[in-house]
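Colleagues,

For the teaching module next term, I've prepared a clean inverse folding example: a structure given as tokens, and then the sequence designed for it. I'd like students to try predicting residues themselves before seeing the answer, so please don't circulate the second half yet.
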């Protein structure tokens, strides 16, 4: 990722919610959408929305706003969602199975094409149509499938050893759903999705509201 893109991380996190609103407008047959409308829908400041959209390179027209189709394409291109990425899923447990069945990913170009597990009872089965293989075949499958992404949903104590195998097999991007801070070489990107940190935010906000009452 370029330095410019990294400094835009808060904007990048908001872009999918913009895309969702813009898609609704497209489905309603609207040709243009203004930054103010997007801001109202998401309870943000219009200036913030315009700044965020500027990073995709698209320019709005005064009074009319942004052309809906071109705006969607610009956001999708900026996010890299206009290209299909093949991903493997490691750990076909409850969380892994839920992610394999999450239909929304396919609209963003993420294709989970194979799962891997160490449990012999799971190998040879499929989860939401995704075949489950033995980890022993990982390197071979990664190269055959052309996968660069791994979605990591094994129990945390196994996260690092599985990661070492992923790196050896040629995976260069790991979406880490464990709570382990993984050690990887410089050429490998890790995005950690600690579900408990989101829940921590929710609990603290609930407590703050209780104290205000
Ligand atoms: P289940 O009880 O059906 O296994 P779960 O979600 O409770 O589901 P977890 O203990 O969280 O299971 O493990 C997630 C998945 O990771 C399981 O399918 C498990 O077999 C698998 N797993 C555990 N260790 C490894 C490992 N070292 N390599 C690959 N997969 C593993």
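(Answer key — instructors only)
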């Amino acid at each position: 990722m370029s330095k410019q893109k990294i400094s835009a991380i808060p904007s990048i996190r908001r872009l999918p919610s913009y895309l969702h609103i813009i898609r609704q407008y497209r489905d309603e047959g609207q040709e243009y959408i203004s930054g103010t409308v997007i801001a109202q829908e998401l309870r943000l400041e219009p200036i913030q929305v315009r700044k965020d959209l500027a990073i995709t390179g698209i320019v709005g027209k005064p009074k009319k706003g942004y052309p809906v189709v071109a705006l969607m394409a610009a956001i999708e291109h900026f996010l890299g969602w206009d290209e299909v990425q093949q991903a493997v899923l490691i750990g076909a447990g409850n969380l892994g199975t839920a992610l394999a069945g999450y239909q929304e990913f396919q609209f963003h170009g993420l294709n989970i094409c194979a799962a891997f597990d160490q449990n012999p009872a799971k190998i040879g089965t499929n989860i939401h149509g995704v075949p489950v293989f033995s980890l022993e075949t990982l390197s071979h499958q990664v190269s055959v499938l052309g996968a660069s992404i791994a979605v990591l949903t094994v129990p945390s104590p196994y996260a690092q050893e599985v990661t070492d195998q992923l790196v050896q097999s040629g995976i260069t991007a790991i979406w880490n759903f464990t709570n382990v801070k993984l050690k990887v070489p410089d050429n490998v990107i890790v995005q950690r999705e600690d579900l408990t940190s989101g829940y921590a935010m929710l609990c603290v906000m609930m407590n703050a509201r209780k104290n205000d009452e």
